[in-house]
Design brief:
four-stranded antiparallel sheet, globular
Length: about 500
């Protein structure tokens, strides 16, 4: 029998002693242990959840942490008992295309679920007694809706943003969405719409929400301004965030946003890196200021606007090593006090950095192609991840050996900058992957989640999923859901 190596948990041993003599509370002990880098380095796959018939575009835990929710190109939403790998409930979402996000509303006994999708819809699903599910349309966008945000602590309030630039506030007690504003460019004519991919709400101040999309700025808004002044001028941001070197860069855009429990703002850029901003790093509400250049009163010269930049001495923390070129990737925090930053990558791996200092500490192979979503467990050191493959990986610190960084982690290629240009068609895109990032080249690529293979007629959708492999084992099952990558959560209408 292989002996377990001597643990390198000196601090944990000290903490155990402090806990036993009453110097460290049980809650503090649990939090410090969950944040241990040693446990992060022992994360490995605990279980694979099989059952979807397309790419899994959204994954997350409920508030108690005993259920994982997922949504897929197959237009179904599933609730899993992740410890056993069994599906507790599977239902047709009502969407006509790929489900991009599914969230359980707080304080609803896991019976109220909101979703958004490539069909531009936001929908509400209610789980009734006996397991029946009723779904209804909440709001529509003219373009895909990649993300929605649930107001912390509220079982009723949801925000959506879409590729049409529209931001909406939804109250599940009302049948009418509130259209807040359409996001437009900062410079130029202010007529160009910013196509939005991400939205997040500050957990410490739920009045504040941030949006990001096809330009370089993360924009923060205060909903209290709308409540006081109505829609008049509400489209004006309360604050902007952007690394100084990216201001004016037309080749970048934002794919993921997240707030920490300390109101730090995490921003993930396509074809670039991930940045962590504190509140003092904001550029303020007025990016454009009139030039102080003096001109003759008879001159026809027009004063041009000047972009105000942040103090160069205050720079955001940067996280690098991953690739974010091909898909709309999220980004997030991990740990009881957001001690780590996590992201997926085009190389099919999960990347974990120390939040403080930006040091890359762990890289885990999680998909044969691309990892898009990572959901941290709310209480214990565990993660869920998903991507182009049709399963969900659950990660727990069960490895005997501490992981070491692979030798072939590459920096973001400087020449991959074609994402936010073009007319929005992804039909001719050629998605290729670096074979050096995989050690299972003998496995044949199966095709992943072209939703055109699923009949869009609601009556033809198998809502009971009797033909799916829901028994939680790690086999691929007997389902065939062939197709190319065009309809996965792969592209923006601004050209991926």
């Amino acid at each position: 029998m292989k002996k377990r190596p001597r643990a390198t948990l000196d601090q944990a041993v000290v903490d155990i002693g402090r806990r036993e003599v009453g110097d460290l509370s049980a809650r503090s002990f649990a939090r410090r242990l969950a944040a241990s880098e040693d446990l992060v380095l022992r994360l490995e796959i605990y279980k694979k959840l099989n059952g979807h018939r397309g790419c899994v575009n959204t994954v997350g835990f409920n508030a108690d942490g005993d259920i994982v929710i997922s949504g897929s190109d197959d237009r179904h939403v599933k609730l899993w008992d992740w410890q056993t790998g069994k599906v507790k409930l599977s239902f047709y979402s009502g969407h006509l295309s790929n489900v991009f996000q599914a969230k359980i509303m707080p304080y609803t006994d896991d019976r109220s679920i909101v979703t958004c999708a490539a069909d531009g819809q936001a929908r509400h699903a209610q789980i009734l007694e006996g397991g029946q599910v009723e779904t209804m349309l909440l709001a529509k966008h003219r373009g895909r809706v990649h993300k929605l945000a649930v107001e912390p602590g509220s079982p009723h309030i949801v925000y959506t943003c879409g590729e049409d630039g529209l931001v909406q506030r939804l109250d599940l007690r009302s049948n009418t969405p509130t259209e807040l504003f359409t996001c437009r460019e900062v410079c130029g004519t202010h007529e160009k719409v910013v196509q939005l991919n991400a939205i997040a709400i500050d957990p410490r101040n739920p009045n504040l929400f941030v949006i990001g999309g096809s330009d370089e700025y993360a924009r923060v808004y205060d909903i209290r301004n709308y409540k006081r002044n109505g829609s008049h001028n509400f489209g004006r941001s309360a604050n902007y965030f952007c690394p100084s070197h990216l201001i004016g860069d037309a080749n970048v855009g934002i794919t993921g946003l997240a707030y920490s429990d300390q109101s730090e703002l995490l921003v993930s850029y396509n074809d670039e890196l991930i940045y962590l901003f504190t509140q003092e790093m904001g550029l303020g509400p007025d990016l454009l200021s009139a030039s102080t250049k003096s001109v003759d009163s008879n001159s026809s010269e027009v004063t041009s606007p000047t972009v105000v930049t942040a103090d160069d001495s205050v720079t955001p923390q940067v996280y690098k090593g991953h690739r974010n070129c091909e898909t709309v990737k999220g980004v997030g925090f991990y740990g009881p006090k957001c001690e780590y930053v996590v992201s997926g990558s085009d190389c099919g791996r999960v990347f974990i950095w120390k939040k403080k200092g930006g040091r890359l500490i762990h890289v885990m192979k999680a998909d044969k192609h691309v990892v898009n979503c990572i959901g941290p467990h709310p209480h214990i050191p565990a993660l869920a991840s998903s991507g182009i493959e049709r399963d969900i990986k659950i990660w727990t610190p069960k490895a005997i050996e501490r992981a070491t960084l692979p030798t072939n982690v590459e920096q973001v290629p400087p020449d991959r900058m074609a994402w936010f240009s073009g007319d929005g068609s992804d039909e001719d895109e050629d998605y290729s992957y670096d074979d050096d990032f995989y050690d299972d080249d003998d496995e044949e690529d199966e095709g992943h989640g072209d939703s055109s293979d699923v009949d869009s007629d609601d009556d033809d959708v198998d809502e009971d999923d009797d033909d799916e492999d829901d028994d939680g084992d790690n086999s691929d099952g007997g389902n065939s859901f062939s197709g190319d990558y065009d309809d996965c959560d792969f592209t923006l209408s601004i050209s991926s």
